[in-house]
Amino acid sequence: MAAVLTRxxxxxxxxxxxxxxxxxxxxxxSKARPFLPCALGRAWSICVAYIVAVTAxxxxxxxxxxxxxxxxxxxxxxxxxxxxxxxxxxxxxxxxFPRIAGKPAGYLYxxxxxxxxxxxxYPLMTYMVAHMSDAYLKEIxxxxxxxxxxxxxxxxxxxxxxxxxxxxxxxxSGDKAKNIPACIACHGERLTGAxxxxxxxxxxxxxxxxxxxxxxxxxxxxxHAPDCMAQISRQLEPEDIAAVSTWLASQAxxxxxxxxxxxxxxxxxxxxxxxx
Length: 276
Ligand code: HEC
Ligand code: HEC
Description:
This protein is mainly α. Helices cover about 50% and strands about 0% of the residues. Bound molecules: heme C (2 copies).
């Protein structure tokens, strides 16, 4: 009898937690970004992904509490991530969730710590990493960094040729008059990122890119000082951001996505998250 009561209580708690989580996401007034996938006409599939992810996480927690034997591997423990980030972290067709597979482990680790410590804002990401140790986050980061599933096709370049050309010039050469360095100076000539902690810029959806620049501008996304991306984002006018995001999202991914070696990059301005 006591065991049944305990189980019922746990299930009620689980349900209450789920409701609280969903509420915290759906009533987040100050930030439009957590809504974004729901506001794009894919509301229910994405919201169902949330529920699946959280239920999977909670099932894992319950399973370990009941000492049920499940194989305890990283692959097993990160299954919940796939609900939003796609199989093996390859991203989904939802057009917002970023790919995590194949990115430099140092970059992934910095982001997980950023979510945990409030330098990036996404309630479910924060919830998931809130109680994970540095060592565990490192293990997860290395796991996804070592995965190389195929990339999705580039997005259609729905913009005037002049807009795309402006995007290309900013990425390849920057804009001296506006004090914007070329993106390739840090993200590598092929835009595949640089070791140990600079991410690639190809293979990301336009909505996700736009939203990151918005977050840097309004302080919702931060990195350790000096926060070079926040500085650069402040120099970019809204039309520059639209041009850069549209051009980047429409680029085909190179066959060799390996990041540039740290020694091949000299940062034009210092970045706290990628010290040299
Ligand atoms: C409920 C959906 C959801 C689940 C489940 C989820 N994520 Fe995320 N994750 C997101 C979203 C959305 C973002 C982008 C947030 C933003 O706009 O900054 C993100 C961002 C990230 C980033 C930063 C990516 C980058 O390029 O900067 C990493 C790393 C990450 N997630 C890892 C994970 C891992 C590891 C798990 C499983 C333990 C996980 N996520 C589970 C939704 C999710
Ligand atoms: C001085 C070096 C430097 C330059 C120049 C630079 N970046 Fe970055 N960028 C970084 C670093 C470092 C990070 C990782 C920040 C972090 O850890 O949050 C980053 C991250 C990003 C991300 C996040 C990717 C993701 O998966 O979330 C985007 C998008 C980005 N940069 C776009 C650009 C664009 C576009 C330009 C050119 C206009 C540019 N960057 C120029 C250093 C640079």
